[in-house]
Amino acid sequence: MRESLKGKVIRIHSDDGHADFGRIIYDFVENDDVLYIAFPSSPEKTFGEVNSITDVKAPKNEKRRSAYLGMPRRLRRATIPLLGGGKSVSLVDFTPPAEWLLTDDQLNKEATSLERNRRNLPQWLKHREQQKELIEPIIGEFGEFELLELGLLQELVQARSKALGYPTTKKVRQTMLRFLLGCGHPNALLPNWGEIGGRGTEKFTKKKTGAPSRRSSLPHAVPEHVSDEEDRRKLRDGYRKHKRKRVSIHLAYLRTMEEYWPGNEAILHRSQRKYFLLPASQRPTEAAFRWAARSLRSASRINMGELVHRAVRRALMGSRADGVVAVGQLGVIDCTSEDQTLVSAVNSLKVLPSSHRTIVVDVKSEYILGIYCGFEFPSTLTSLLAILNCAADKVSFCAQHRVYISVGDWHSRVPKRIRADNGELKSEKGIKTMTASEVGLEFVRSYAGDMKSLVEATHLTMHRRVDHNVAGSTQGRAKERGEPAREEEACRTFEQNMKYVIEAVLYINNEQPVPQLLTVEMRKDGVQPTRRAIYEWLVDKGYVASEPIDMDTLRAHCLPKLKAVIHRDGIHVFDPRDERRLIPGLVYVGSWLAESGLCERATRGRIPCELQLDPQNISEAFVMREGLRELGLKTTDPLVKELTLFEYLQMTDEDKHTVGAMQSDQESRDAYFHSSNQAENKAAKAVKAKALEAAGESKLARRAGYEKRKNLDEELNRQHLIKLGLGDSGAASQPTSPYEPPVVTAIPASVLGQHTPITQSGDAIDGEPLSPALGAARSVTADLMAQLRKTRRA
Question: Are 351 and 343 contacting, i.e. CB atoms less than 8 angstroms apart?
């Protein structure tokens, strides 16, 4: 079967390139002849092929006009290679001009188009319809066979021109030939834009274009400068030379004017420097400077820098999930500040600084695998703790924050490869930790935020759902003028807010609809459009790249190590801010520690060690000794275990300040207490010295015993009589000397039983004399007690 050549373009090749000669518009059915129409820009014919009658009558030296189309020419297929006059000839497909692709809506400007031009498109559409009316009776009744093969084209064109009253057939003939050259395309009747100042063609005028400036309306106005081709070249050269980063367009314009349009008269400034430029009417304006440089690099591109511009403004050809086919194959990690203001759990009047949130998201299912929130600034530590949370038991993790879930509500998995920015994880510790955990790392190049846009979008969702609904939220922006301070409205603690953070994660993972993630295979299996359903379907189908690794391995590498020391009562932790100071009350114990014998050894000297704990969960800690050993916090206050390390340190700091403020008054009380004791001792010693002196005893004499037991019995008897209301009168005692035992005279019980009144001198009222020994004891004891009471009153 013979190949149809209708619509093919005859192309002539040369050493300098190629040129399109014409287009085949008809392929004869019964023979090998074809008809073609030469393009307006085709070269002159050099040999006598079958020509039209018009070409025979035309002079040989007549040049074809740019928009003029000749009548169709007929030739055999075998003679097509001869059209090149010895040059190579080929047949190629016709590429329609850009204006042929415009729809009627775009020509009416009813549809949005990326093509920006100053053409009056409705006018061009009107012109096309007028041209179509000229040939409508011809093309509506006759086809290509009658017009071209039977030769009715010229006869019908003459008849149509006569019917329209035209003196010649030129207008109808050119319209009909343009329609045939387009092989029936309706937009072939549009004006030829490519030949009439096409897009990008530079134009020059003798009169300044645009709206007249204000200077032109002044009396005796001088005509403004009109830029020619040489002026525009100078403006472009000046832009390339003087427009640099941190150099404004206005300054670059002035430097260009100084270089290419200098003045003849020098103006001396007070700094004796010369400034000279031509008058404004003799040089281009700044607007002309901008217009001439429009084809060069834009000012924003120069200010941004070529490297940054290419990275930030580059076209995005792929997606973030390209090459990712399984769950856990690639995870994205990033940290952001939380748009909220929190208060201390110990004292709600104490406002805390902004906390930070780090999340890990699976790229394939967009499932949030792990999260870490804390007051620590973004660092390798926070990223490692978020990765540790990916493998942690989510049921127990949520229960710590009073959110109770079932197994499967939040799955645990550590990605096989993690993508991060050039920040937290890009450190020696981060790289070594991930290598030891058999997790690959890749870092996003600078100014390529689209590589981790998934986690950035997740941050935005978390901000809107959680942070922006908290009292005292920053709403993700700086405080505006007149707006009340966020610190005044802050009232939520970290633990209260953490509950809603977890609830938001559960909503994103289990409830938020994401139909765009469903594949055709998922839709066939009836998978629900949620991240949890997609995640579980991928796992069930075997689209899995990794399994959760050993938790002890992750804890050993991810948990921060704090300096600690073993004492008899447990392991005490040093303050990470000052490793010379132990954190008060932060002591960890466990059955393993008691059985290891380390506490007994610590009685002979403390044993230094390292303790690993999660800053957001101080209720448990771990020690590396023949494996990872778990310890518990030693405390009687259950609420202490709910504090973060930051809040616990803040609480101990507040206690220290409180005790420091009380120290001055406490020292004053202690000084008074010790001084009053010394005064009491001094007074008692004076009384005792007086008693010794009254007894006539020598201070230097000593005896072996003081008869303490006997004195104790007498003292107990005396106190017993006092309780009975008898005072000191019933005390049968004598002044006791530390050197000789007193002489005690026995008193009959009958005498003690009689209530004989006694005067102050020791005589009985009824005239019976009292025992001398009893009277002496009474006077010495009375004097001693009187002196003691007098001293106390003083």
Answer: yes
**Token digits for 594?**
């008691």
Report the alpha-carbon distance of residue 105 to residue 189 in Å, rounded: 17
Residue 503 sits at the vertex; the CA angle it makes with 498 and 507, to the nearest 5 degrees, is: 150
CA distance 385 to 391: 10
- Name the pTM for this structure: 0.60
pLDDT higher than 50, residue 63: no
How many other C-beta atoms can be found within 10 angstroms of the C-beta atom of residue 618? 24
**Sign of the dihedral defined by the CA atoms of residues 325, 330, 331, 332, in that order:** negative
269 beta partners: none
In the chain, the percentage of residues whose pLDDT exceeds 70 is 82
691, containing H or E segment: helix 645-695
Residue with tokens 């448990």: 620
Give every strand in the sheet of 440-443, ordered side by side. 368-374, 356-362, 331-337, 417-420, 440-443
Give the span between the Cα atoms of 105 and 157, in whole angstroms.
31
- Provide Rg for the chain, Cα atoms: 53
Which of 470, 537, 536, 541 minimizes the C-alpha distance to 499? 470
* Residue of 271 and 176 predicted with greater confidence: 176
Residue 649 has, within 13 A of its CA and on its CB side, a CA count of 15
Mean pLDDT throughout 675-691?
90
- Kindly write down the DSSP assignment for every residue of 576-593, as one continuous string: TTEEEEEEEEEEEE-HHH
Q: Which two tokens stand for residue 599?
A: 């506490």
Q: Decide if pLDDT at 673 tops 80.
A: yes
What is d(CA 379, CA 385) in angstroms, rounded to the nearest whole number? 10
Q: Give the neighbor-by-neighbor strand order of the sheet with 33-38.
A: 73-76, 33-38, 17-27, 9-14, 88-92
Roughly how many angstroms between the first and final C-alpha of the chain, as a whole number?
Answer: 141
639 by Cβ neighbours in 10 Å (0-12 / 13-18 / 19+) ranks as: exposed
Cα(526)–Cα(518) distance, integer angstroms: 10
Helix (H) or strand (E) holding 686: helix 645-695
Whole-Å CA distances, 730 to 46, 615, 718, 725: 163, 72, 7, 10
Phi and psi angles of residue 130, each rounded to the nearest 5 degrees, phi first? -65, -40
Cβ-proximal residues to 260 (8 Å cutoff; 6+ apart), any chain: 234, 237, 238
Instruction: Give all strands (DSSP E) within 555-703, no chain letters.
Output: 561-567, 570-575, 578-589, 607-614, 617-624, 628-633
Largest CA distance in the chain: 187
Q: Residue 697 has what pLDDT?
A: 57
Distance between CA 551 and CA 360 in Å, rounded?
17
Torsion angle in degrees (nearest 10) through CA of 541, 546, 550, 554: -140
Tokens encoding 38: 């030469």
How far CA 537 is from CA of 131, 250, 416, 520, in Å, comes to: 63, 61, 19, 13
Give residue-wise pLDDT tens across range 368-411: 999 999 888 888 889 999 998 998 889 999 998 889 999 999 99
CA-wise closest residue to 568 among 596, 528, 548, 538: 596
